[in-house]
Amino acid sequence: MSKKNTKKHGRKKEKGKKGNVQKLNIVSKITLVVQVMALIKSLIEFANLFL
After folding, report:
1. How far apart are CA 33 and CA 26, in angstroms?
2. Containing domain of residue 45, as a range?
3. Where are the beta strands (DSSP E) in the chain?
4. How many domains would you assign to the chain?
5. Keywords assigned by UniProt (predicted)?
6. How many angstroms separate the CA atoms of 15 and 6, rounded?
């Protein structure tokens, strides 16, 4: 009985981890886009100083 319970628990944890990983990927992609946009904005501002 205890072995079956641990197996079920392990499966549940794996599913949870997969879900969290997908969420983290989405969040990291959003943060990456925001960082890139901020970088471009700062580069444009930097270029404007010289132009």
Report:
1. 11
2. 22-50
3. none
4. 1
5. Membrane, Transmembrane, Transmembrane helix
6. 14
